[in-house]
Amino acid sequence: MCARSLEEIISKRIGQGKAIVLIGPRQVGKTTLFQKILSQRKHLFLDADDPVVRQLLDAPSTEQLKRIIGDHTLIFIDEAQHIPSIGLSIKLITDQFKQVQLLVSDSSSFELGQSVSEPLTGRKWQYELFPISWQEIESTLGYVKAAQQLEDLIL
User: Fold this and answer.
1) What pLDDT sits at residue 82?
2) Which of 54, 69, 102, 154 has the fewest CB atoms within 10 Å distance of its CB?
3) pTM of the model
4) CATH code for the domain of 10
């Protein structure tokens, strides 16, 4: 897997109190990037593709969130755009559970942007992940190997 330029930036933000929101088109590696960052850390993974997760995180009370979170201090919510009131849920977690670090991925930046911009003002760092760049390929493989692979793809 190629090293993504956002990996180090996001890793340094973990534990600093704000939600980390990663947006971008489908299939660019948002989930993979977060999974790599979290691979050696205990965390709670909540997949919003799952209807049960969507229901749990759609307008929960603080008490319900307390039960969902348990003793986890690191939570990854994947495909958050599927949760109608995700902005308010993220705001509640960020405000009420100061020890919890949220990582949130979204394939539909417009939808999530609409639902989180107002309630999360000052409570999030938002990054956009693009398809892999030449710089990321070159930094992983080196110039010669990257150029050879590009040539193989073209031919």
Assistant:
1) 92
2) 154
3) 0.84
4) 3.40.50.300
